[in-house]
Amino acid sequence: MTTTPAAPRHVHERHTEAPGCADNKADHLARLHKIEGQVRGISRMVTDDRYCIDVLTQISAASHALQEVALGLLDDHVRGCVTDAARTDAAHAEEKLVELNATLRRALRL
């Protein structure tokens, strides 16, 4: 008898409704494009043998900018996806809270 393996835990079902970040998509993308430019600039700094502390300062700024994007997406998710689930279906809300908890644990490395 052949069994089908269960889907890996990191694979999530695709949702057909618009994600919570859809309203702020343009803002998130604009920030990410800006960060992309920062990272290219850091690469040029390394290529040009710029002073190490200056490169590290720019890396820190890019890292902080990525964290701000992540916090914005997290806020969108809680205000959109989690709140909507809580209003419509208790079981779905519980799934969203478990997912959020796991995501925060990964992000915080707990």
What does this protein structure show overall?
The chain is mainly α and about 110 residues long. It has one domain: Metal-sensitive repressor, helix protomer (Methane Monooxygenase Hydroxylase, Chain G, domain 1, Up-down Bundle), CATH 1.20.58. The radius of gyration is 19 Å and the shape is elongated. It starts with about 25 loop residues before the first helix and ends with a helix. This is Metal-sensitive transcriptional regulator. Belongs to the CsoR family.
**Do you know the CATH architecture?**
Up-down Bundle
The ordered string of helix (H) and strand (E) elements is HHH
Distance between the termini: 40 Å
What do we call the CATH homologous superfamily? Answer: Metal-sensitive repressor, helix protomer
Q: Which consecutive residue ranges, at least 5 long each, have pLDDT under 50?
A: 1-16
> What is the approximate shape?
elongated
Largest sheet: none
Gyration radius over CA: 19 Å
Count of DSSP helices? 3
CATH class: Mainly Alpha
Pfam family, one: Trns_repr_metal
Organism: Streptomyces prasinosporus
Protein name: Metal-sensitive transcriptional regulator
InterPro entries: Metal_Tscrpt_repr (IPR003735), Metal_Tscrpt_repr_sf (IPR038390)
